[in-house]
Amino acid sequence: MSSKVPIFTLSNAVRMPSVGLGTWQMTGDEGKTVIRNAILAGYRHIDTATLYQNEDQIGEALAELFAEGVVKREDLFITTKAFCHEVAPDVIEEALRNSLKRLRLDYVDLYLAHIPAATRECGSHRTDVKVEDIWKGLEKLYSLGLTKSIGVSNFNESQIERIVKIQKVPIHVSQLELHLYLPQKAHREVCKKHNIIITAYATLGSPGRMSVIGADGKPLFEFTKNIPNELNDKNVKALAQKYNKTPAQILLRATVEMGIVVIPKTTNPERMKENINLFDFSISKAEVNLLEAHERSKPERLFWWPNVADHPEDPFAAER
């Protein structure tokens, strides 16, 4: 793994690079090119999911890079996720095996339940599947060696506590939306208590979300368009000027300083290099605290997952 990027050690001793590449909205030939560029730029952590529909392209790119001797499988940390229709214990093994075929891998380093609400393939809710059932299915995959680590994504604090009560394998990672205006302090406390590493998505505000079109032909996240972007925050800009870095680099570095993994997404080769070039300067604890002081009275959530509204395991029911 790249020596420049700090490595976080999971509770099962698996080593996870603190900076990875998010791949949402990267499909087709572009997705394949982006992965090659990322590996050449020093990325050793790639985050994907069934939902992203790019596992095939990632698998092709990785196979070529392995064959060329650019990188070895054991040097990489690959994460993928089971979506709503794949998380139930009666279908999750097939889901992961299908992901592995597309990725052309024998195992992934981390497999996540993408959201705690199980559905059928048609989208209808499965109310017979609880988060405890989802976790038992993940534990089976871990025991089979199909994944080196297991975790959750978009689960709330009470759902994590419920899993902890019944788990035989601990939760290794919790991935969720986390950024300057949604710092997730309660979630971070729960994860700290249970020795769970956090991965943050949307750390830079996820501007690409506005290109997602819903069934009604309108942007799916239209109602979030007026939420301020942290890249324009005056304190972020001041630190960027002080350290001669971009606002994105300040936000990413501050998040890593909190002990949180970041997976910024970009297809731009220069920004890709900037997003991993975070460790040639030091940001102080006081400066991190200054940024954290800007938590909003009302959470500035960007992603609401409308497909699981009214599901018994909707993780955002209390906020809707």
UniProtKB/TrEMBL annotation:
GO MF, one example: oxidoreductase activity
- SUPFAM superfamilies cross-referenced by the UniProt entry: NAD(P)-linked oxidoreductase
Query: Could you tell me which InterPro entries the record lists for this protein?
Result: AKR (IPR020471), Aldo/ket_reductase_CS (IPR018170), NAD(P)_OxRdtase_dom_sf (IPR036812), NADP_OxRdtase_dom (IPR023210)
- The residues that the entry says bind substrate are H114
Q: Where is this site: Lowers pKa of active site Tyr?
A: K81
Q: Pfam families in the record, alphabetically?
A: Aldo_ket_red
What domain of life does the UniProt record list for this protein's source?
A: Eukaryota
The active site annotation covers Y52 (proton donor)
Q: In what residue span(s) does the NADP-dependent oxidoreductase domain sit?
A: 19-295
List, alphabetically, the Gene3D superfamilies matched.
NADP-dependent oxidoreductase domain
Q: Output this protein's name.
A: NADP-dependent oxidoreductase domain-containing protein
